[in-house]
Amino acid sequence: MPFDCTAESQHFGCSLGLVLRQYARELDWARDGVVELGTGDASAVAGVVAGVPGLRVRSWDVDAPSVVAARATIAEHGVGDRYTVEHGDFFAGSAGSPARTVITNPPYLPAPDGDLELPGLWGGPDGNALLLRLLDGPWEHVVTAVASYADPVGTLEAAADAGYRVTSFLAMPLELGRYSREPKVLARIRELVDAGRGWADEDSYMVAVALLTRSPALRGDRAAELAGALQLPLVPALAAA
By its UniProt entry, which InterPro entries does this protein fall under (predicted)? Predict the structure, then answer.
């Protein structure tokens, strides 16, 4: 079942479009294309593909209903020749791809297990399991959503250890919604916040869409600024970035 959050989708799509336009030369997506981990209903990315000539995206999603919904959305936008979706595991399907850039708005609900109202939103015990796995891969550039309550401290530490720097980001607040307030999810969010591994108040949290890169063509590192935007304490590993 695809997850639908208009505000989050619009934020991800707008931010992704800006990144791909601003860094078109450095990311070289016109030559190599882009791969996507998790398609959802494709509403955010289909609009980007429609508005960015030459952009080609190959995507994978493990949820069959989401694939059906995504293909319908892609057809409505008339970009089926440049945006394809496959039902299956991203990590297996993308192996050997020439693309150097991966995009994702990953599931990031933290909880002890995936027995949730919408299991496809489970991001592991800390909410960042898929993102950490992605950062352990071969990608030169990662454009990803980072949620302030899904152990962004651990995410930024892992990114730095893997050789990534934060080139740019756009952050916005979102309300804690139905799925974030599910009791086991909310309890885990509070544990992460209390441990200094994330941020959320009684009603909201932050989501940033960030470009992480290993490329020497993109200079500087805004990891500490991103931590601040996510309301995080400036831990030593980020302060030194």
Answer: DNA_methylase_N6_adenine_CS, SAM-dependent_MTases_sf
The burial class, CB within 10 Å (0-12 / 13-18 / 19+), for 169 is buried
At residue 232 the predicted structure's pLDDT band, cuts being 50, 70 and 90, is confident
136 alpha carbon, distance to own chain's centre: 15
pLDDT in tens, 157-167: 999 999 999 99
Annotated domain spans of the chain: 6-230
Contact between 79 and 15 (Cβ < 8 Å): no
- How far apart, in whole angstroms, are the C-alpha atoms of residue 43 and residue 198? 28
Query: With 60 as the cut, is the pLDDT of residue 140 above it?
Result: yes
Q: What does the block give as tokens for 122?
A: 């489970």
Report which DSSP code applies to 109.
B
Alpha helices in 94-172 (DSSP H): 129-135, 152-161
Strand partners, 35: 58, 102
For domain 6-230, is the CATH number 3.40.50.150? yes
Taking residues 211-220, report their average pLDDT: 95
Residue 241 pLDDT class (50, 70, 90 cuts): very low
Distance CA 122, CA 177 (A): 14
How far is it, in rounded angstroms, from Cα 72 to Cα 93?
21
Q: Quote the CA–CA distance of 233 and 218 in Å, as a whole number.
A: 26
Query: Could you give the CA distance from residue 67 to residue 167 in angstroms, rounded to a whole number?
Result: 31
Given this model, what pLDDT does residue 7 score? 83
Q: Widest CA span of the chain, in angstroms?
A: 48
In this prediction the pTM is 0.94
